[in-house]
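Archive entry. Fields below.
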Amino acid sequence: MRAGPFIASQALVRAWAWLRTLAGDDAYERYLHHRALRHPGEPTLGRAAFCAAEVRRKWEGVNRCC
Amino acid sequence: MRARILGIGLALLGAAAVAVIALSRREPVNALWFVTAAVCTYLLGYRFYAAWIAARVLCVDPTRATPAERLNNGRDFVPTHRAIVFGHHFAAIAGPGPLVGPTLAAQFGYLPGTLWILVGAVCGGCVQDMTILLLSTRRDGRSLGQMAREELGPLGGAAALLGTLLIMVILSAVLGLVVVNVMKHSPWATSTVLATIPAAVLVGLYLRWWRPGRVLEATLLGVLLVLAALLGGGWIDHQPVLRTWFDYAALPLAGLIILYGFGAAILPVWLLLAPRDYLSTFLKLGTVLLLALAIVLTHPQIKMPAITPFVAGNGPLFGGKVFPFVFITIACGAVSGFHALIASGTTPKLISNELDVRLVGYGSMALESFVAIMAMIAATLLDPGVFFAINSAAGVVGATPEAAVRTISGWGFPVSVEQMRALAQAMGEQTLFARTGGAPSLAVGMASIFGSTFGRGLLALWYHFAIMFEAVFLLATLDAGTRVGRFMVQDVLARLWPPLGRTSWYPSVLLASALIVGAWGYFLYIGVIDPNGGVNILWPLFGIANQMLAAIALSIATGIIIKSGRRRYALVTLVPLAWLAVVTTTAAWQKVTSGDVRIGLFAAANDMAAKLAAGLLPAERAAVAPQLIFNQRLDGWLTILLTAILWLVILDMARICHRRLRGLPLPASSEARHHPTRLRAVRAEP
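PREDICTED_STRUCTURE:
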């Protein structure tokens, strides 16, 4: 009987995670995850510096269309 | 077995729907038939044609590591779940093009445009996007220009670069012109659109200083602000004095847009451009979903005939016969060369497995094509008389409402001054006559659909919501186009003097921005002073440029397919390439050589020059005539240049293919080496 609400809440959590990835909301967390996995112990950028650099990088090429 | 039955069912249903829209002549057709025909066509194309191309022509290899995996840096190269890449790619390719083009092409009736959107997408646009996406993924995410240079030669590379720069200029001008036509003498629209600028700046500051990187909450804040601006605009419109502050003619509005474009190009990107883009993307996706839902719920009847007499070439929106001009007018939504720039930009760096290119490349384009179908529905559900009254310039149908309705009713599309007045009042506007560019009539169509789904009392609000959505969307694309154009100009200037290539050196930023904004600002200015509306000249030019870019992309793809020894499959890209070459060249030929002043650019210039010399033009026309004459000739030469670029690239591709078939030496393939993938599955979350 409890499975229903549990599955529904899991689906919501999952949908929220997808929405965050789609919007780029979790870009910093993913960056930290990547650094921890591939470059452990090396310095990482702070959130503000990372986000500023990301915005610059994203707008250096063609990323919107007619 | 089940898949086969499903396939046959889809084919039968799709064929029935296409038959209904193609063969109905007396009875009005329901919009649901359009939706059914489109969805069945895309599903069949995706299930069979795309799968076949992926497997046989592109030899998609799921065991091969993609650049996202090999070069993973946690930033631009990131293996990403295909649904997320699909969302990113769709948001990037879906611009205002598929909304404006079908609206303009509706002057031929609903049938020519609809058939081209469906066939063009499934056999051309989707194939182009998927192919370029895979080719770029195989080449570490190289750009279209780089691929042209490496796979064809320096000539192809230079042509692709020049073509891209030209398309940025023409696109920005035409989008600016559409925005001007949306806002002229409309205090509600103007105040709302202006208010979106501080809203975007606030979102930018929020993301920069208060809560870095919290895109969702910042965007939510921005969307609420923009909706408040929409309501505020309605309030302003009812204030007798305040409304005059936002009541502008076309020319000052064009000046404002040029200033705004320059500002957006030189200001830091986080302050205006990026936050405006977040707002635009959310509004875009939300509105497209809402529109689809509303069309299914209301299933309106289409009032425009399947084919109008204007297929013969005397249409009021733009001159020219249905062939080749319907194929030029609808570029985005059927085949859009611009997509090849996206498919060889950010997207290939996110693909986690080559199998995903089918969903991301082919699927996103199919969805964009569906947006074009919805725009066609929104344009053709209006009374044809109303549609033509909104979209015909004063120079074509007459300057007064009485003259306009007389001309339009004379064509067999009855409309009255009272009907237009009542409609304008319901939409909260003073007049809807001669609002060329496609956006206002689309907004009227969307408001009718939303109004009958979510409450008719709010028609004016829905109309201005649609206007605001279109304007935010158009301006976001204009900003992005200007910025890319600026980088390209800096790239060229760097060859003259290297410091000018430094993208963050302010003197260079100012110079390059002034050059690119000056270029599109010029075309925008001319469009505004042109009594025929300007869109009638600029949109076909944009279409020719966009199809030329598509032909370049398809040439690169064909060259690579033949170079890699799969020439028996080359028809997959060669057929759409040949079609685009024929269509673009025919249209360009007519624009250059036609003696009809509504089609031929040089003929129009000569005609106006003769009238000016003979003193036949009224004073206000004579004042702007020299500029219009110069511009028509300039556009004529631009058309010749675009066609020359197109054929240079095609000949370059033919040279490469000839060398391959004769066994002569070729430029080496720039494909990255095969590395086996180690990814098992990529999850959406970290």
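CURATOR_NOTE: The radius of gyration of chain A is 17 Å.
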